[in-house]
From TrEMBL:
Species this protein is from: Rhizobium lemnae
Protein name: PotD/PotF family extracellular solute-binding protein
Keywords carried by this UniProt record: Periplasm, Signal
Length: 335
């Protein structure tokens, strides 16, 4: 942790007696407090307070305060893109984040000059290899006749839900953003294979553990729970690739402690913090300097080879299309 401490320490004296306000989810609170908060407080000589809640609630609070009230905000990339579109964040100066240089390119500047990503995940397909044969190797396999009533999809308002629409467009050989009619015709055909849609990870794990579903479109952080419930659940090796999901950190336009916010963001991007967070099962690393054993890495989106194969989503287009897609999706699945 020496490098991160030395670099962060150069700001320490000026930051004394200040209070950094962080908006985040509050998950893994004990580990985050031990790995990040207490060490950072010793470096900056500052106090730290929190605003917690889900993406939508915290972003809405920031909007109601016109970008004021917090100094750093953690969000998934779909929600940080909304914040950018609504003018709630300031662009970042890369020169004030030296640890950016060690990140994978996908994490350095994912949204046009705003906050970097501090962790990465993926959306793909998992299936019960004891019951699904042949193996699933493509997104188009979701439409296979032998999977009738076997699939669970994420609800359209979840992070992964809109990704199903994009794959449905590809199944219909169109771009879902420019030809939603064809994409949703394909969703209509997929409905026959859907046992039930889910809105939370625990709901999805329950559908699989009870045998109601043998195939799920999901984020990789659910894989450990799925395998604990059904050991033969397997992450599909898709020829057309998984889809990247990023969690970003941004500085709101009304931050009253901008330099302290930069110091904090640089700290969490350091190799030392990224390493311990990954080793303890908190977040996947985006630092190229992190080294994990195969056992440590098996739950994460990890390494240059895996990350280079991920597909990226255009959240500007997605957020513009979302209201129409929600209506179309609900019309199909409410019947």
């Amino acid at each position: 942790m020496a490098l991160g401490i030395v670099m962060a320490g150069t700001f320490g004296a000026a930051a004394q007696a200040k209070t950094l306000t962080i908006s985040w989810w509050g998950y893994n609170g004990d580990k985050l407090n031990a790995n990040i908060i207490e060490p950072f407080k010793k470096i900056c000589g500052c106090d730290i307070v929190f605003e917690t809640g889900n993406n939508a609630d915290r972003l809405n609070k920031l909007k109601l305060r016109d970008g004021k009230g917090v100094d750093v905000i953690y969000l998934t990339d779909s929600f940080s893109q909304i914040g950018i579109a609504e003018g709630l964040f300031q662009k970042v100066d890369p020169a004030k984040l030296p640890n950016l240089a060690d990140l994978y390119d996908i994490a350095k500047n994912p949204q046009g000059g705003y906050g970097p990503a501090y962790t990465i995940g993926r959306v793909g397909i998992v299936y019960d290899s004891a019951k699904v044969n042949p193996p699933i190797t493509s997104w188009n396999d979701l439409w296979r006749a032998d999977l009738k009533g076997a699939v669970t999809l994420p609800g359209i308002t979840t992070t992964a839900g809109p990704m199903v629409v994009l794959q449905a467009g590809k199944n219909a050989k169109v771009d879902a953003f420019s030809d939603a009619d064809k994409a949703f015709e394909s969703i209509g055909k997929l409905k026959a294979n859907v046992a039930k849609n889910y809105n939370t990870g625990s709901e999805m794990v329950n559908l699989v553990s009870t045998g109601e579903a043998k195939v799920a479109v999901t984020q990789d952080f659910t894989l450990a729970s799925l395998k604990a419930a059904v050991p033969t659940m397997t992450w599909a090796q898709l020829s057309d690739g998984d889809i990247a999901t990023l969690n970003t950190v941004n500085i709101p336009k009304g931050s009253e402690n901008v330099e302290l916010a930069y110091q904090f963001i640089n700290f969490i991007l350091s190799k030392e913090i990224q390493q311990i967070e990954a080793e303890q099962g908190v977040d996947a690393p985006v630092s190229t300097k992190v080294q994990l054993t195969p056992e440590q890495a098996k739950i994460w989106t990890y390494g240059a080879d895996m990350i280079s194969k991920l597909n990226r989503l255009d959240y500007v287009k997605l957020n513009q299309a979302k209201t129409d897609w929600i209506d179309r999706w609900n019309e199909i699945f409410s019947k």
